[in-house]
Amino acid sequence: MKRPTLPSLRTGLVAAAMVVTLGACGAATATPDSSTATAASTSSASTSTSSTATTTNAGTTTTTAAAIADLLAANQASHWSAEDAEYAASEAVKVTLTGSTASVSGEGASLSGSTLTIDQAGTYVLSGTFTGNVVINVPKEDVILVLDDATITSNGTSAVEIQAADEVTVVLADGSTNTIADSASYSDEAEGAASAAIDSKADLSITGGGALTVTGNHNDAINSSDGLAIAGGTLTIKAADDGLRGQDYVSITGGTVTVDAGGDALKSDNDTDETRGYVHVADGTLTLTAGDDGISASTDALVSGGTTTINAQGDGVHADAQLAIGGGTTTIAQSNEGLESKLILIAGGTTSVTSSDDAVNVSDGSGSGGMGGGGGNATSGLMLTITGGKLVIDSQGDGLDSNGSIEMSGGTVVVSGPTNSGNGALDVNGTFEISGGTLIAAGASGMAEAPETDSAQGWVSATISSAYPAGTVVSIVDSSDKVVATYTADKAFSSVVFSSSAITNGETYTIYVGGSASGDTVGGLATSGSIEGATNIGTVTAGQHSGGQGGPGGR
Protein backbone atom coordinates (compact mmCIF):
# COMPACT_ATOMS: atom_id res chain seq x y z
CA MET A 1 0.00 0.00 0.00
CA LYS A 2 1.29 3.43 -0.87
CA ARG A 3 2.04 5.45 2.25
CA PRO A 4 -0.05 8.65 2.53
CA THR A 5 1.91 11.76 3.45
CA LEU A 6 0.68 14.35 5.89
CA PRO A 7 0.38 17.01 3.19
CA SER A 8 -2.18 14.75 1.53
CA LEU A 9 -4.10 14.46 4.81
CA ARG A 10 -3.90 18.00 6.10
CA THR A 11 -6.61 20.55 5.62
CA GLY A 12 -5.94 23.38 3.20
CA LEU A 13 -4.75 26.47 4.99
CA VAL A 14 -5.12 29.90 3.49
CA ALA A 15 -4.50 33.05 5.67
CA ALA A 16 -4.39 36.95 6.43
CA ALA A 17 -2.14 38.76 8.91
CA MET A 18 -0.81 41.59 11.08
CA VAL A 19 2.30 42.73 13.06
CA VAL A 20 4.31 45.77 14.39
CA THR A 21 7.25 46.99 16.47
CA LEU A 22 6.76 48.56 19.85
CA GLY A 23 9.31 51.01 21.24
CA ALA A 24 8.95 50.40 24.95
CA CYS A 25 9.97 48.11 27.63
CA GLY A 26 -7.00 -5.52 30.79
CA ALA A 27 -7.53 -7.61 32.74
CA ALA A 28 -7.44 -11.38 31.81
CA THR A 29 -9.16 -14.08 33.86
CA ALA A 30 -9.45 -17.86 33.77
CA THR A 31 -12.34 -19.90 35.18
CA PRO A 32 -12.48 -23.65 35.73
CA ASP A 33 -13.32 -26.33 33.21
CA SER A 34 -14.91 -25.15 29.98
CA SER A 35 -14.91 -21.43 30.76
CA THR A 36 -12.54 -19.08 28.97
CA ALA A 37 -10.09 -16.36 29.97
CA THR A 38 -10.40 -13.13 28.05
CA ALA A 39 -8.23 -10.02 28.10
CA ALA A 40 -10.75 -7.28 28.72
CA SER A 41 -8.38 -4.38 29.19
CA THR A 42 -8.07 -3.61 25.51
CA SER A 43 -9.01 -0.60 23.48
CA SER A 44 -8.74 0.08 19.79
CA ALA A 45 -7.30 3.13 18.08
CA SER A 46 -10.72 3.93 16.72
CA THR A 47 -12.32 4.19 20.15
CA SER A 48 -9.55 6.24 21.72
CA THR A 49 -8.95 8.64 18.85
CA SER A 50 -10.48 12.10 18.80
CA SER A 51 -13.09 12.63 16.12
CA THR A 52 -12.61 16.39 15.74
CA ALA A 53 -13.75 17.52 12.30
CA THR A 54 -11.91 20.00 10.10
CA THR A 55 -13.05 21.40 6.78
CA THR A 56 -10.70 21.68 3.85
CA ASN A 57 -10.59 24.55 1.38
CA ALA A 58 -12.19 22.19 -1.13
CA GLY A 59 -15.25 21.99 1.09
CA THR A 60 -14.79 18.38 2.17
CA THR A 61 -14.77 17.38 5.81
CA THR A 62 -12.24 15.08 7.41
CA THR A 63 -11.76 13.98 11.02
CA THR A 64 -8.85 13.41 13.31
CA ALA A 65 -9.83 9.75 13.54
CA ALA A 66 -9.81 9.45 9.76
CA ALA A 67 -6.40 11.08 9.49
CA ILE A 68 -4.85 8.70 12.03
CA ALA A 69 -6.72 5.75 10.49
CA ASP A 70 -5.29 6.58 7.07
CA LEU A 71 -1.77 6.59 8.48
CA LEU A 72 -2.38 3.31 10.30
CA ALA A 73 -3.82 1.76 7.15
CA ALA A 74 -0.53 2.44 5.39
CA ASN A 75 1.28 0.31 7.99
CA GLN A 76 1.20 -3.39 8.71
CA ALA A 77 -1.81 -4.15 10.91
CA SER A 78 -1.19 -5.16 14.50
CA HIS A 79 -1.54 -8.87 15.14
CA TRP A 80 -3.31 -8.31 18.47
CA SER A 81 -6.88 -9.41 19.09
CA ALA A 82 -8.62 -9.90 22.44
CA GLU A 83 -9.41 -13.45 21.30
CA ASP A 84 -5.68 -14.20 21.47
CA ALA A 85 -5.90 -14.25 25.28
CA GLU A 86 -8.90 -16.59 25.54
CA TYR A 87 -8.23 -20.05 26.89
CA ALA A 88 -9.99 -22.96 28.59
CA ALA A 89 -8.54 -23.31 32.08
CA SER A 90 -9.25 -27.03 32.14
CA GLU A 91 -7.05 -27.55 29.08
CA ALA A 92 -4.10 -25.53 30.33
CA VAL A 93 -0.85 -27.24 31.26
CA LYS A 94 0.18 -26.21 34.76
CA VAL A 95 3.89 -25.72 35.41
CA THR A 96 5.11 -25.32 38.98
CA LEU A 97 8.53 -23.71 39.25
CA THR A 98 10.82 -24.47 42.18
CA GLY A 99 14.45 -23.37 42.21
CA SER A 100 16.06 -24.73 39.04
CA THR A 101 13.42 -27.43 38.59
CA ALA A 102 9.86 -27.56 37.32
CA SER A 103 6.98 -30.01 37.56
CA VAL A 104 4.65 -30.22 34.55
CA SER A 105 1.07 -31.50 34.75
CA GLY A 106 0.46 -32.37 31.12
CA GLU A 107 2.20 -32.57 27.76
CA GLY A 108 4.03 -30.02 25.69
CA ALA A 109 6.65 -28.84 28.19
CA SER A 110 9.77 -30.51 29.49
CA LEU A 111 12.79 -29.67 31.61
CA SER A 112 16.40 -30.26 30.60
CA GLY A 113 18.93 -28.95 33.08
CA SER A 114 17.66 -25.51 33.99
CA THR A 115 15.85 -24.93 30.69
CA LEU A 116 12.09 -25.37 30.46
CA THR A 117 11.14 -25.95 26.83
CA ILE A 118 7.61 -25.62 25.44
CA ASP A 119 7.41 -27.39 22.09
CA GLN A 120 3.67 -27.79 21.53
CA ALA A 121 0.96 -25.23 20.90
CA GLY A 122 -1.37 -24.60 23.82
CA THR A 123 -1.80 -22.76 27.09
CA TYR A 124 0.74 -23.02 29.89
CA VAL A 125 0.24 -21.59 33.38
CA LEU A 126 3.51 -20.87 35.17
CA SER A 127 3.76 -20.23 38.92
CA GLY A 128 6.56 -20.29 41.46
CA THR A 129 10.21 -19.24 41.39
CA PHE A 130 12.65 -20.46 38.75
CA THR A 131 16.36 -19.94 38.21
CA GLY A 132 16.83 -20.82 34.58
CA ASN A 133 15.20 -19.93 31.29
CA VAL A 134 12.00 -20.70 29.43
CA VAL A 135 12.22 -21.52 25.73
CA ILE A 136 9.22 -21.61 23.37
CA ASN A 137 9.74 -23.42 20.07
CA VAL A 138 6.47 -24.05 18.21
CA PRO A 139 7.01 -23.07 14.55
CA LYS A 140 3.91 -21.45 12.95
CA GLU A 141 1.73 -22.17 15.99
CA ASP A 142 0.40 -20.19 18.94
CA VAL A 143 1.13 -20.30 22.65
CA ILE A 144 -0.59 -18.61 25.57
CA LEU A 145 1.82 -18.20 28.48
CA VAL A 146 -0.04 -17.40 31.70
CA LEU A 147 2.11 -15.96 34.48
CA ASP A 148 0.51 -16.51 37.88
CA ASP A 149 2.91 -15.27 40.56
CA ALA A 150 5.92 -16.44 38.56
CA THR A 151 9.51 -15.30 39.05
CA ILE A 152 12.02 -16.27 36.37
CA THR A 153 15.71 -15.30 36.60
CA SER A 154 18.19 -16.46 33.99
CA ASN A 155 21.95 -16.70 34.02
CA GLY A 156 23.85 -16.15 30.77
CA THR A 157 20.85 -15.94 28.44
CA SER A 158 17.29 -14.64 28.06
CA ALA A 159 14.87 -15.50 30.82
CA VAL A 160 12.10 -16.12 28.27
CA GLU A 161 13.20 -16.88 24.72
CA ILE A 162 10.66 -17.42 21.95
CA GLN A 163 12.68 -19.14 19.25
CA ALA A 164 9.81 -19.92 16.87
CA ALA A 165 6.04 -19.40 16.87
CA ASP A 166 3.27 -17.65 15.00
CA GLU A 167 2.06 -15.66 18.01
CA VAL A 168 2.77 -15.81 21.72
CA THR A 169 0.42 -14.11 24.18
CA VAL A 170 1.60 -13.51 27.72
CA VAL A 171 -1.38 -13.27 30.08
CA LEU A 172 -0.81 -11.82 33.55
CA ALA A 173 -3.26 -13.64 35.83
CA ASP A 174 -5.60 -11.35 37.75
CA GLY A 175 -3.99 -10.06 40.94
CA SER A 176 -0.70 -11.83 40.25
CA THR A 177 2.79 -10.36 40.69
CA ASN A 178 5.39 -11.58 38.25
CA THR A 179 9.09 -10.88 37.75
CA ILE A 180 11.40 -11.67 34.84
CA ALA A 181 15.10 -10.75 34.73
CA ASP A 182 18.22 -11.74 32.85
CA SER A 183 21.92 -11.43 33.70
CA ALA A 184 24.28 -8.65 32.62
CA SER A 185 26.38 -10.95 30.41
CA TYR A 186 25.32 -13.63 27.93
CA SER A 187 27.23 -16.72 26.88
CA ASP A 188 26.18 -16.19 23.25
CA GLU A 189 26.48 -12.60 22.03
CA ALA A 190 26.63 -13.35 18.30
CA GLU A 191 24.53 -11.22 15.95
CA GLY A 192 20.96 -12.52 15.85
CA ALA A 193 21.22 -14.31 19.18
CA ALA A 194 18.72 -13.58 21.93
CA SER A 195 19.64 -10.37 23.75
CA ALA A 196 16.67 -9.33 25.89
CA ALA A 197 15.15 -10.56 29.13
CA ILE A 198 12.09 -11.50 27.06
CA ASP A 199 13.27 -12.10 23.52
CA SER A 200 10.88 -13.16 20.75
CA LYS A 201 11.26 -14.08 17.11
CA ALA A 202 7.47 -14.08 16.78
CA ASP A 203 4.62 -11.63 17.30
CA LEU A 204 4.34 -11.04 21.05
CA SER A 205 1.42 -9.70 23.10
CA ILE A 206 1.14 -8.91 26.80
CA THR A 207 -2.19 -8.42 28.57
CA GLY A 208 -4.12 -9.35 31.70
CA GLY A 209 -5.01 -8.08 35.14
CA GLY A 210 -1.75 -8.77 36.93
CA ALA A 211 1.62 -7.05 37.30
CA LEU A 212 4.90 -7.80 35.54
CA THR A 213 8.36 -6.42 36.23
CA VAL A 214 10.93 -7.07 33.52
CA THR A 215 14.59 -6.16 33.99
CA GLY A 216 16.92 -6.28 31.02
CA ASN A 217 20.34 -6.19 32.63
CA HIS A 218 22.13 -7.22 29.47
CA ASN A 219 20.50 -5.10 26.74
CA ASP A 220 16.77 -4.67 26.08
CA ALA A 221 14.03 -5.63 28.51
CA ILE A 222 11.49 -6.90 25.94
CA ASN A 223 12.35 -7.39 22.29
CA SER A 224 10.31 -8.84 19.44
CA SER A 225 11.78 -9.34 15.99
CA ASP A 226 8.19 -9.01 14.74
CA GLY A 227 5.39 -7.02 16.38
CA LEU A 228 5.00 -6.18 20.07
CA ALA A 229 1.52 -5.41 21.45
CA ILE A 230 0.75 -4.26 25.00
CA ALA A 231 -2.98 -4.52 25.72
CA GLY A 232 -3.23 -4.70 29.52
CA GLY A 233 -1.56 -5.34 32.83
CA THR A 234 0.73 -3.26 35.02
CA LEU A 235 4.20 -3.36 33.53
CA THR A 236 7.39 -2.06 35.13
CA ILE A 237 10.25 -2.15 32.66
CA LYS A 238 13.93 -1.54 33.39
CA ALA A 239 16.56 -1.89 30.69
CA ALA A 240 20.24 -1.30 30.11
CA ASP A 241 19.30 -0.28 26.57
CA ASP A 242 15.79 -0.20 25.06
CA GLY A 243 12.72 -0.84 27.18
CA LEU A 244 10.01 -2.09 24.81
CA ARG A 245 11.24 -2.90 21.31
CA GLY A 246 9.13 -4.33 18.52
CA GLN A 247 11.22 -4.33 15.40
CA ASP A 248 8.17 -4.36 13.09
CA TYR A 249 5.96 -2.28 15.37
CA VAL A 250 5.01 -1.43 18.93
CA SER A 251 1.28 -1.12 19.61
CA ILE A 252 -0.01 0.06 23.01
CA THR A 253 -3.77 -0.33 23.44
CA GLY A 254 -4.05 -0.61 27.22
CA GLY A 255 -2.36 -1.20 30.52
CA THR A 256 -0.18 0.83 32.86
CA VAL A 257 3.38 0.88 31.59
CA THR A 258 6.40 2.36 33.35
CA VAL A 259 9.72 2.24 31.50
CA ASP A 260 13.18 3.26 32.70
CA ALA A 261 15.60 2.66 29.82
CA GLY A 262 19.23 3.50 29.19
CA GLY A 263 18.38 3.79 25.48
CA ASP A 264 14.93 4.35 23.97
CA ALA A 265 11.84 3.66 26.07
CA LEU A 266 9.61 2.54 23.15
CA LYS A 267 11.30 1.61 19.90
CA SER A 268 10.52 0.15 16.49
CA ASP A 269 13.45 0.03 14.10
CA ASN A 270 12.60 -1.94 10.97
CA ASP A 271 13.96 0.43 8.33
CA THR A 272 13.73 -1.95 5.36
CA ASP A 273 9.93 -1.95 4.96
CA GLU A 274 7.98 1.31 4.93
CA THR A 275 4.89 -0.45 6.31
CA ARG A 276 6.76 -1.48 9.44
CA GLY A 277 8.96 0.21 12.00
CA TYR A 278 6.12 2.20 13.58
CA VAL A 279 4.94 2.93 17.13
CA HIS A 280 1.25 3.49 17.94
CA VAL A 281 -0.05 4.57 21.34
CA ALA A 282 -3.84 4.19 21.34
CA ASP A 283 -4.61 3.90 25.05
CA GLY A 284 -3.14 3.11 28.43
CA THR A 285 -1.08 5.06 30.95
CA LEU A 286 2.60 5.33 30.05
CA THR A 287 5.46 6.80 32.07
CA LEU A 288 8.63 6.75 29.99
CA THR A 289 12.14 7.64 31.15
CA ALA A 290 14.86 7.30 28.54
CA GLY A 291 18.58 7.90 28.17
CA ASP A 292 17.85 8.51 24.50
CA ASP A 293 14.39 8.93 22.92
CA GLY A 294 11.10 8.42 24.72
CA ILE A 295 9.47 7.04 21.57
CA SER A 296 11.56 6.20 18.51
CA ALA A 297 10.19 4.94 15.18
CA SER A 298 11.95 4.19 11.91
CA THR A 299 8.75 5.11 10.05
CA ASP A 300 5.72 6.56 11.90
CA ALA A 301 5.01 7.53 15.49
CA LEU A 302 1.25 7.80 16.11
CA VAL A 303 -0.55 8.86 19.29
CA SER A 304 -4.33 8.55 19.22
CA GLY A 305 -5.14 8.15 22.91
CA GLY A 306 -3.92 7.30 26.38
CA THR A 307 -1.92 9.30 28.89
CA THR A 308 1.80 9.45 28.22
CA THR A 309 4.51 11.19 30.26
CA ILE A 310 8.04 11.32 28.88
CA ASN A 311 11.37 12.30 30.41
CA ALA A 312 14.05 11.83 27.75
CA GLN A 313 17.66 12.84 27.28
CA GLY A 314 17.13 12.69 23.50
CA ASP A 315 13.92 13.40 21.62
CA GLY A 316 10.58 13.08 23.34
CA VAL A 317 9.00 11.48 20.26
CA HIS A 318 11.04 10.85 17.11
CA ALA A 319 9.85 9.41 13.80
CA ASP A 320 11.94 9.15 10.66
CA ALA A 321 8.90 9.44 8.38
CA GLN A 322 5.76 10.88 10.01
CA LEU A 323 4.63 11.86 13.51
CA ALA A 324 0.94 12.35 14.24
CA ILE A 325 -0.93 13.18 17.46
CA GLY A 326 -4.70 12.86 17.27
CA GLY A 327 -5.81 12.23 20.84
CA GLY A 328 -4.86 11.49 24.41
CA THR A 329 -2.70 13.49 26.79
CA THR A 330 1.01 13.60 26.04
CA THR A 331 3.40 15.37 28.40
CA ILE A 332 7.03 15.63 27.41
CA ALA A 333 8.45 16.91 30.68
CA GLN A 334 12.09 16.72 29.58
CA SER A 335 13.73 16.38 26.18
CA ASN A 336 16.44 17.70 23.94
CA GLU A 337 13.97 18.12 21.08
CA GLY A 338 10.36 17.37 21.90
CA LEU A 339 8.69 16.22 18.67
CA GLU A 340 10.84 15.52 15.62
CA SER A 341 10.03 14.16 12.17
CA LYS A 342 9.91 15.10 8.49
CA LEU A 343 6.13 15.45 8.67
CA ILE A 344 4.29 16.32 11.86
CA LEU A 345 0.52 16.47 12.31
CA ILE A 346 -1.15 17.81 15.45
CA ALA A 347 -4.84 17.00 15.00
CA GLY A 348 -6.17 16.45 18.51
CA GLY A 349 -5.37 15.64 22.10
CA THR A 350 -3.52 17.70 24.69
CA THR A 351 0.25 17.87 24.23
CA SER A 352 2.78 19.64 26.44
CA VAL A 353 6.45 19.86 25.43
CA THR A 354 9.46 21.04 27.45
CA SER A 355 12.74 21.01 25.54
CA SER A 356 16.33 22.15 25.98
CA ASP A 357 16.49 22.69 22.21
CA ASP A 358 13.63 22.88 19.68
CA ALA A 359 10.23 21.80 20.96
CA VAL A 360 8.71 20.86 17.59
CA ASN A 361 11.31 20.23 14.91
CA VAL A 362 10.39 19.42 11.32
CA SER A 363 13.60 18.23 9.73
CA ASP A 364 14.95 15.58 7.41
CA GLY A 365 18.12 15.29 9.45
CA SER A 366 20.24 16.95 6.78
CA GLY A 367 21.08 19.88 9.02
CA SER A 368 19.52 22.38 6.62
CA GLY A 369 17.83 25.44 7.98
CA GLY A 370 19.28 27.33 10.87
CA MET A 371 19.13 31.10 10.91
CA GLY A 372 16.91 33.10 8.64
CA GLY A 373 14.01 31.74 6.66
CA GLY A 374 11.69 33.46 4.28
CA GLY A 375 11.42 30.49 1.96
CA GLY A 376 14.87 30.59 0.40
CA ASN A 377 16.27 27.83 2.58
CA ALA A 378 13.14 25.69 2.76
CA THR A 379 13.51 21.94 2.25
CA SER A 380 10.78 20.43 0.10
CA GLY A 381 8.63 17.67 1.56
CA LEU A 382 8.82 18.94 5.14
CA MET A 383 5.65 20.18 6.85
CA LEU A 384 4.14 20.90 10.26
CA THR A 385 0.35 20.73 10.07
CA ILE A 386 -1.89 21.76 12.98
CA THR A 387 -5.62 21.12 12.61
CA GLY A 388 -6.78 20.64 16.20
CA GLY A 389 -5.93 19.79 19.78
CA LYS A 390 -3.96 21.75 22.36
CA LEU A 391 -0.19 22.17 22.13
CA VAL A 392 1.74 23.95 24.91
CA ILE A 393 5.46 24.53 24.46
CA ASP A 394 8.30 25.58 26.77
CA SER A 395 11.49 25.63 24.73
CA GLN A 396 15.02 26.88 25.21
CA GLY A 397 15.57 26.55 21.47
CA ASP A 398 12.99 27.28 18.79
CA GLY A 399 9.37 26.68 19.69
CA LEU A 400 7.84 25.68 16.35
CA ASP A 401 10.74 25.00 13.98
CA SER A 402 10.16 23.83 10.43
CA ASN A 403 12.88 23.49 7.83
CA GLY A 404 9.94 23.31 5.43
CA SER A 405 6.62 25.08 6.04
CA ILE A 406 3.82 25.33 8.61
CA GLU A 407 0.07 25.25 8.02
CA MET A 408 -2.40 25.82 10.88
CA SER A 409 -6.17 25.59 10.51
CA GLY A 410 -7.34 24.75 14.03
CA GLY A 411 -6.43 23.93 17.59
CA THR A 412 -4.74 26.00 20.29
CA VAL A 413 -0.97 26.50 20.33
CA VAL A 414 0.88 28.31 23.13
CA VAL A 415 4.62 28.79 22.73
CA SER A 416 6.84 30.01 25.56
CA GLY A 417 9.94 30.30 23.48
CA PRO A 418 13.62 31.02 24.00
CA THR A 419 15.09 33.95 25.92
CA ASN A 420 18.22 34.03 23.75
CA SER A 421 18.10 35.92 20.46
CA GLY A 422 19.73 33.12 18.48
CA ASN A 423 16.42 31.22 18.49
CA GLY A 424 12.78 32.15 18.03
CA ALA A 425 9.36 31.12 19.26
CA LEU A 426 8.58 30.59 15.56
CA ASP A 427 11.24 29.53 13.04
CA VAL A 428 10.05 28.68 9.53
CA ASN A 429 12.28 28.27 6.51
CA GLY A 430 9.35 28.12 4.10
CA THR A 431 5.91 29.65 4.56
CA PHE A 432 3.66 29.84 7.61
CA GLU A 433 0.01 30.03 6.63
CA ILE A 434 -2.70 30.26 9.27
CA SER A 435 -6.41 29.97 8.55
CA GLY A 436 -7.87 28.95 11.91
CA GLY A 437 -7.24 28.10 15.53
CA THR A 438 -5.57 30.15 18.23
CA LEU A 439 -1.83 30.81 18.39
CA ILE A 440 0.27 32.77 20.83
CA ALA A 441 4.06 32.65 20.67
CA ALA A 442 6.29 34.64 23.03
CA GLY A 443 10.06 34.71 23.20
CA ALA A 444 13.19 36.59 22.25
CA SER A 445 12.91 39.16 19.44
CA GLY A 446 16.22 38.62 17.65
CA MET A 447 14.79 35.96 15.33
CA ALA A 448 11.12 36.93 15.59
CA GLU A 449 8.93 35.61 12.79
CA ALA A 450 5.23 35.73 11.97
CA PRO A 451 2.75 34.07 9.57
CA GLU A 452 2.26 35.10 5.95
CA THR A 453 0.60 38.47 5.29
CA ASP A 454 -1.86 36.79 2.91
CA SER A 455 -2.96 34.24 5.50
CA ALA A 456 -6.72 33.76 5.76
CA GLN A 457 -6.75 34.49 9.49
CA GLY A 458 -5.44 37.73 10.94
CA TRP A 459 -2.52 37.84 13.33
CA VAL A 460 -0.69 40.39 15.42
CA SER A 461 2.98 40.49 16.31
CA ALA A 462 4.68 42.90 18.70
CA THR A 463 8.43 43.29 18.95
CA ILE A 464 9.47 45.11 22.11
CA SER A 465 12.71 47.03 22.55
CA SER A 466 13.31 45.73 26.09
CA ALA A 467 12.32 42.38 27.50
CA TYR A 468 9.56 42.02 30.07
CA PRO A 469 10.09 39.52 32.90
CA ALA A 470 8.36 36.24 33.60
CA GLY A 471 4.96 36.71 35.19
CA THR A 472 4.07 39.70 33.03
CA VAL A 473 0.44 39.76 31.85
CA VAL A 474 0.10 40.82 28.21
CA SER A 475 -3.28 41.86 26.81
CA ILE A 476 -4.30 42.58 23.23
CA VAL A 477 -7.21 45.01 22.95
CA ASP A 478 -9.22 45.91 19.85
CA SER A 479 -10.44 49.37 18.79
CA SER A 480 -13.65 48.97 20.84
CA ASP A 481 -11.58 48.34 24.00
CA LYS A 482 -12.47 44.65 24.03
CA VAL A 483 -9.73 42.35 25.35
CA VAL A 484 -9.22 39.72 22.64
CA ALA A 485 -6.27 37.92 24.28
CA THR A 486 -4.62 37.76 27.71
CA TYR A 487 -1.40 35.85 28.25
CA THR A 488 0.75 35.42 31.36
CA ALA A 489 4.37 34.83 30.38
CA ASP A 490 6.34 32.19 32.27
CA LYS A 491 9.69 33.49 30.92
CA ALA A 492 11.17 36.81 29.91
CA PHE A 493 10.06 37.90 26.42
CA SER A 494 10.48 40.71 23.90
CA SER A 495 8.30 39.38 21.08
CA VAL A 496 4.68 38.23 20.99
CA VAL A 497 2.72 36.79 18.06
CA PHE A 498 -1.02 36.18 18.39
CA SER A 499 -3.62 34.90 15.95
CA SER A 500 -7.27 33.98 16.35
CA SER A 501 -10.60 34.60 14.69
CA ALA A 502 -10.86 37.78 16.81
CA ILE A 503 -8.06 39.44 14.79
CA THR A 504 -9.14 41.27 11.64
CA ASN A 505 -6.59 42.07 8.97
CA GLY A 506 -5.89 45.81 8.63
CA GLU A 507 -7.31 46.91 11.96
CA THR A 508 -5.43 48.49 14.86
CA TYR A 509 -4.85 46.80 18.23
CA THR A 510 -3.34 48.07 21.46
CA ILE A 511 -0.86 46.11 23.56
CA TYR A 512 -1.01 46.39 27.35
CA VAL A 513 1.23 44.94 30.05
CA GLY A 514 -0.05 44.48 33.58
CA GLY A 515 -3.71 43.93 34.28
CA SER A 516 -5.01 40.47 35.14
CA ALA A 517 -6.08 37.21 33.55
CA SER A 518 -9.22 35.26 34.40
CA GLY A 519 -11.15 32.21 33.30
CA ASP A 520 -9.70 28.95 32.05
CA THR A 521 -6.14 28.96 30.79
CA VAL A 522 -4.10 26.90 28.37
CA GLY A 523 -0.39 27.34 29.00
CA GLY A 524 -0.91 30.86 30.32
CA LEU A 525 -3.36 31.92 27.59
CA ALA A 526 -6.58 32.90 29.37
CA THR A 527 -10.13 32.99 28.10
CA SER A 528 -10.61 36.48 29.55
CA GLY A 529 -8.82 39.30 31.31
CA SER A 530 -8.86 42.90 32.50
CA ILE A 531 -6.59 45.85 31.64
CA GLU A 532 -7.42 47.71 34.85
CA GLY A 533 -4.13 49.08 36.12
CA ALA A 534 -2.28 47.97 32.97
CA THR A 535 0.14 50.07 30.92
CA ASN A 536 -0.40 50.86 27.22
CA ILE A 537 2.91 50.17 25.45
CA GLY A 538 1.83 50.79 21.88
CA THR A 539 -0.43 49.92 18.97
CA VAL A 540 -0.07 47.49 16.08
CA THR A 541 -1.69 47.26 12.68
CA ALA A 542 -2.74 44.10 10.93
CA GLY A 543 -0.59 42.96 8.06
CA GLN A 544 2.64 44.73 9.04
CA HIS A 545 5.78 43.10 10.40
CA SER A 546 9.07 44.53 11.56
CA GLY A 547 11.70 43.37 14.02
CA GLY A 548 13.73 40.19 14.11
CA GLN A 549 16.22 38.99 11.53
CA GLY A 550 14.43 36.20 9.76
CA GLY A 551 11.13 34.77 8.76
CA PRO A 552 8.54 34.94 6.06
CA GLY A 553 6.08 37.02 8.06
CA GLY A 554 4.92 40.22 6.46
CA ARG A 555 6.50 39.46 3.10
Characterise this structure.
This protein is mostly beta strands. It folds into 2 domains: 1-75 and 299-555, no CATH class; 83-292. It has a 23-stranded mixed beta sheet that branches. Strands 6-7-9-11-14-17-20-22-24-27-29-31-34-36 form a 14-stranded mixed beta sheet, with no helix packed on it. Strands 43-44-40-39-42-45 form a 6-stranded antiparallel beta sheet, with no helix packed on it. A hairpin with a 5-residue loop joins strand 39 (473-477) and strand 40.
Helix/sheet category: mainly beta
Radius of gyration: 26 Å
| Percentage of residues assigned to helices | under 10%
Point out poorly predicted stretches.
Answer: 7-62, 368-375, 548-555
Count of all domains = 2
Shape, per Cα inertia axes? elongated
Question: What is the straight-line distance between the termini?
Answer: 40 Å
What's the tally of helices?
3
- Summarize model confidence as the mean pLDDT: 87
| Count of DSSP strands | 45
The biggest beta sheet reads:
23 strands, mixed
Beta-strand residue fraction: over 45%
Brief summary of the model shown:
With 555 residues, the protein is mainly beta. It is elongated, with a radius of gyration of 26 Å. The model is unreliable at 7-62, 368-375 and 548-555 (pLDDT under 50).
Which features does this protein show?
about 550 residues, mainly beta, 2 domains, 23-stranded mixed sheet, 14-stranded mixed sheet, 3 helices, 45 strands, about 5% helix, elongated
What's the layout of helices and strands?
Elements: H1 6-9, E1 20-22, H2 45-48, E2 53-55, E3 61-63, H3 64-73, E4 93-99, E5 101-105, E6 109-112, E7 115-118, E8 122-131, E9 133-137, E10 142-153, E11 160-164, E12 167-172, E13 177-181, E14 196-200, E15 203-208, E16 211-216, E17 220-224, E18 227-230, E19 234-239, E20 244-246, E21 249-261, E22 266-268, E23 278-290, E24 295-297, E25 300-303, E26 307-312, E27 317-319, E28 322-334, E29 339-341, E30 343-355, E31 360-362, E32 383-386, E33 390-395, E34 400-402, E35 405-416, E36 426-428, E37 432-443, E38 459-468, E39 473-477, E40 483-488, E41 493-499, E42 508-513, E43 516-522, E44 525-530, E45 535-541
Parallel strand pairs: 1-38, 4-8, 7-9, 8-10, 9-11, 10-12, 10-13, 11-14, 12-15, 13-16, 14-17, 15-18, 16-19, 17-20, 18-21, 19-21, 20-22, 21-23, 22-24, 23-25, 23-26, 24-27, 25-28, 26-28, 27-29, 28-30, 29-31, 30-32, 30-33, 31-34, 32-35, 33-35, 34-36, 35-37
Antiparallel strand pairs: 2-3, 4-5, 6-7, 37-41, 38-41, 39-40, 39-42, 40-44, 42-45, 43-44
